[in-house]
């Protein structure tokens, strides 16, 4: 019973993290969930009297990006509502992240960075579980579909993809695979940096396999996350003395059997998706090339503005322009300066919370590199995860590290005063 009392409160940050990652999965008065959680987070931040001075640097960095984007629209005499909507979403994600990290610290008192990563991995795993349920049971599908934001575009996406891939809860296509891949990167780090008992190791390994297969059947970009995750494991295995290398070896051996079991599971439940989902692997076995029909023509999707004004200032509009490639879309949107700043922005935020532990910093680097790789295929940012990391390290710095250091300083001073007093008393006597 006591263990149950400890577990139940953890559902709050888990659910909050889930809807931070999948904000459109819950309709709140016609708006995404982060609209509400962002307001609550900002109110809480103000109630706490704006505790972290580093937030000024974040807002300045975000404001600089908005200025560049707005200037592009102004120069082109365009008022694209996407620009305002994008920055409104960034602010909502930012203060939602504060709200989530606050709840994690209230429940766990002194949570480690791994605790935050576990919540993210669990939230992504929960999406995989819900997506699986939605695709094998119509009642589950109808229930969760009734919760998410409704629009004609949403219904068109569901109709288009339902016969080809697994449709997730509040997310679909490219974004679904991108987030699933993020989960694989995080689990890869945790497998190297957490000292797990047998139960914990099996649970985390199974979560990896389940996330991989469900993510793959939602969008094949999941494979990119798996590749980056394996790179993280390799780097930590070779150069990090604090990594649990034995777990990595066991994971690689056991993953062969788990992946085989996962393949059987996937073929049993989703045989009609298999040709599409495993096209990358079947093509590699047949031709030795890592490509799919969609990636084969990717080089033709890279488009660069031909006129100098568009190349420098963009068009001020986020429109399709005949390409899904993130870099091309950004060039047409805000030109070279805006594109460079857009992709450097998460690096600026990550710089604010970097630690002395290079392996911990590697997680942020891996996510940023992963995002840069994803933009070859489509347009996306993963700033919402960077905001979570930012606030975790701010909470740790101001509420654990600095108070602990001050206590240590006072203790040392008290010891010196006591020793000096005793010395004087000895001299007098």
From TrEMBL:
Keywords: Membrane, Transmembrane, Transmembrane helix. The keyword Membrane applies. The chain crosses the membrane at residues 7-22, 28-48, 55-75, 87-105, 117-136, 166-192, 199-216, 222-239, 251-270, 330-346, 358-376, 382-400. This is O-antigen ligase domain-containing protein. It comes from Dysgonomonas termitidis.
């Amino acid at each position: 019973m006591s263990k149950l009392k400890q577990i139940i409160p953890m559902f709050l940050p888990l659910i909050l993290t889930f809807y931070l990652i999948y904000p459109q999965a819950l309709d709140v008065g016609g708006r995404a969930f982060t609209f509400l959680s962002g307001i609550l987070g900002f109110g809480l931040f103000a109630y706490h009297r704006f505790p972290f001075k580093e937030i000024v640097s974040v807002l300045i960095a975000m404001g600089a990006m908005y200025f560049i984007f707005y200037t592009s629209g102004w120069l082109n005499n365009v008022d694209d509502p996407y620009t305002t909507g994008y920055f409104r979403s960034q602010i909502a994600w930012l203060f939602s992240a504060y709200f989530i990290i606050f709840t994690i610290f209230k429940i766990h008192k002194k949570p480690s960075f791994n605790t935050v990563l576990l919540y993210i991995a669990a939230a992504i795993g929960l999406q995989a579980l819900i997506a699986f349920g939605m695709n094998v049971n119509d009642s589950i599908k109808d229930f969760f579909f009734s919760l998410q934001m409704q629009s004609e575009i949403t219904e068109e996406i569901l109709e288009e993809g339902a016969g080809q891939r697994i449709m997730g809860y509040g997310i679909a296509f490219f974004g679904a695979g991108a987030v699933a891949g993020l989960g694989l990167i995080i689990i890869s780090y945790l497998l190297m940096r957490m000292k797990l008992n047998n139960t914990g190791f099996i649970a985390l390994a199974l979560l990896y396999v389940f996330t991989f297969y469900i993510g793959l059947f939602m969008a094949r970009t999941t494979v990119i996350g798996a590749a980056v995750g394996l790179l993280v494991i390799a780097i930590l295995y070779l150069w990090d003395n604090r990594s649990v290398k034995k777990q990595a070896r066991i994971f690689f051996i056991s993953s062969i059997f788990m992946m085989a079991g996962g393949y059987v599971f996937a073929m049993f439940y989703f045989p009609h998706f298999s040709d599409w989902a495993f096209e990358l692997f079947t093509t590699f076995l047949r031709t030795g090339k890592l490509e799919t029909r969609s990636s084969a023509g990717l080089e033709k999707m890279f488009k660069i503005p031909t006129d100098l004004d568009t190349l420098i200032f963009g068009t001020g509009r986020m429109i399709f322009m005949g390409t899904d490639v993130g870099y091309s879309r950004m060039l047409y949107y805000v030109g070279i300066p805006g594109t460079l700043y857009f992709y450097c922005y998460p690096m600026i935020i990550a710089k604010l919370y970097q630690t002395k532990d290079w392996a911990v910093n590697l997680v942020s680097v891996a996510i940023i590199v992963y995002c840069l790789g994803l933009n070859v295929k489509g347009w996306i940012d993963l700033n919402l995860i960077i905001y979570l990391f930012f606030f975790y390290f701010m909470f740790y710095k101001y509420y654990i590290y600095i108070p602990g250091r001050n206590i240590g300083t006072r203790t040392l001073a008290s010891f010196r005063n006591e020793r000096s007093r005793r010395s004087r008393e000895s001299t007098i006597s």
